[in-house]
Fold:
Amino acid sequence: MHTAPVTQDVKSQLAYGETLYSRGEYNQAAGVFKEILNHDPGNVDAHYRLGVIYGKQGDIKKSAEEFLNVVSLDPAHHKAFYNLGAIYSSKGSLYSVSKAADNFKRYLRLDPYSKKRKQIIDWLQSHGQKFDKIEPEIRTNKNYNVSADKNDLISQADTYVAQQDFDKAKSLYQAVLDRNPRNSTALYKLGVMYMKQGAFVKGRTELLKAISIDPELNRAYFNLGVLYSTQGETYDLEKAAFFFKKYLTLDPDAPQKENINAWLSTHEDIKAGLIFHNDSQAPGATFSNDSFDNFKTWLENQAGEISNEKETN
Structure:
C-alpha cells in the first residue's frame, strides 16, 4: 500500500487531532485520526497517533496493531519500532522477549545515537539477547525501495529533507557515517540539513568536517559563507568572505558568482569606511547601503541547497 500525498486539509485534521490529544481528549482525537484513515488508509501519522492513544488507554493489542501498520507502510519509522519493543517487553498477553528484542534492535539500527540506546542494550543483555553487533541498516520491502547501500541511504535521506522529515533524514545520514565517519557527502548533507532547521552551530560543525576530508567540496564552502553571513551564533562577516572567496576559487563559473562578488565588494567598502552598514550605527554616518542587506537576504535564500557532490569513501 502506498501512502497518498498529504493535502492541506489532511494536515489541518492531523493538527486538530494533535491538539485534542495534547488536551487529553483521547477519544475525540482518535475519532479524528480514524476519519483521516477512512479517506487515506495509508496515512502513517494517523496510524502512529492511534497506536499511541490506544497505548495510553491500555488497549495494548490495538496499539500494537497500529504500530505494525506504521512499520509496514514506513520501515524507517524508528519510533514505531521502539513502541513495539516496549509493548512486547511489557508483561502481558503480548509479552515476547524475541519480538521485543527484534524491534528494539531495528530501532537502534534506525536511530543509532538514540538517548535510549544504553537502556535498550541493558535490557537486551539482561534478557540474554546479543547486542554487540547492532549496526545501522535499512531493510527493503515491497513498499519501501531502499537498500543498505550508502548511496541509496543518502538519496533516501535527501528525499526526507525535501519533505522536511528531518528526524528520518538524520538517522539515514548517521547510518552512513556510522559505517564510514569520513564520508564527506554525508557530513556535508547533514550540515545542510541542520542549516535548514536553523541549527547553524551544528551545521557549521558538519560542514567543517566535510571540507577537512575533501578540501575541494565547493558547495560546503558556499554554505559556510551563507552560515557566517547570517545573523546568529555563527555570525562572522570576515569568515563569510573567506569561504565565499574559496568557493569562487574552486568554482569560478558558479551561477552565484555575480551576486557573491557584489556582496564581497560591498563588504570591502564597509571595511574601508566608504559606506556604512545599517547595523553598524556608526557615529556620523551619512550614507547607508541597503544592497548589503539585500545580498544577505539573497544568500540566505540560497542556503542549504542539496546537490550531488562527489563522495569521499
User: Anything to note?
Assistant: Residues 8-104+118-126 form a domain with the Serine Threonine Protein Phosphatase 5, Tetratricopeptide repeat fold (CATH 1.25.40.10). The radius of gyration is 24 Å. Residues 1-6, 136-148, 278-296, 303-313 have pLDDT under 50 and may be disordered. The chain has two domains: 8-104+118-126, 180-302.
